[in-house]
Amino acid sequence: MDLLFVHVSRFLHVLVCECVPLPDSDSQMYGEIHSPQYPLPYPPNLQKQWEITVPEGFQISLTFTHLDIEGSAGCYYDSITVLYDEKVLGKFCGNENSADGHHPGHQPILSPGSRLTLIFQSDDYNPDRKQNVGFSAQYQAIDIDECSAPEPEDGSGPLCSQICLNTLGSYLCACHHGYKLRSDQRTCMCKFGEWRGRFSVIDCGEPEPLLNGGVTLLSGFQNQYLSVVQYHCNEPFYSPYGGNNGKISD
Ligand SMILES: [Ca+2]
Ligand SMILES: [Ca+2]
Question: CUB domain spans which residues (predicted)?
Fold first, then answer.
């Protein structure tokens, strides 16, 4: 069993800041899309595609404000299809009252990420009796709350080891009092500070947990400056550092 000795250090508060990239010129925060010639009837033999892009860190909320497309089973003749990458999020036709077709309703369609593809197509025949006018839709960018996302299944741990702060278009990690953010911008480590005035007890907080191992207090008082803790690996895990004891001090 390999051991690693660590001095728990004292600390000060942590300042965090963040730089968010400017939206690229092709992305917008909101917009409107409609079928060709809308609100006049759309022509036959049509295929038109739109690529909607909003800034990274946002998802798209798409709402159909009007939909009147020739209805058919499976929207085989005419349709508007909404895709995220290759995945079809919905294929629509008909209108609100038609028995044939599939209407999107008035609930917004949410993209998993910052882009959406819309494909409108009409076949070579449009009924003369009923002049379908197509569709009109509006979209807007909505911030993704990265802090509410479930923990990744790859075992890499939470997005932020201590505090996750959702921001508009991004997120940032922060640390409890006494810790500072590591260079990975997501995990925290105990921070040195300056002695100020009279001696006072410094609480460094709980030692960080060790995957497949444990922590034992060897001396001092738990979580206080200059306390010594011992990390150990649970069998059959071992330290990759060759069995030498390590000591980190201030
Ligand atoms: Ca048609
Ligand atoms: Ca966010």
Answer: 19-142
3-state class (DSSP) for residue 75: helix
Q: Which two tokens stand for residue 108?
A: 């917004």
List, for residues 137-185, the tens digit of each pLDDT value: 999 999 999 999 888 788 778 899 999 999 999 999 999 988 999 999 9
Domain boundaries, the chain: 30-143
The class level of CATH for 30-143 reads: mainly beta
Which element (helix H / strand E) includes 213? strand 213-219
Neighbours of 37 (CB within 10 A): 12
Centre of ligand 2 to C-alpha 202, Å, is 34
Ligand lying nearest the CA atom of residue 43: 1
β-strands 3-7, 246-248: how paired? parallel
Write the CB contacts of 150 (distance below 8 Å, at least 6 apart in sequence).
none
How does DSSP assign 100-168, residue by residue?
A: SSB---SSPEEPSSSEEEEEEEE-S---SSS---EEEEEEEEEE--GGGSPPPTTS---SSSSEEEEET
d(CA 224, CA 232): 20
* Ligand closest in space to the Cα of 72: 1
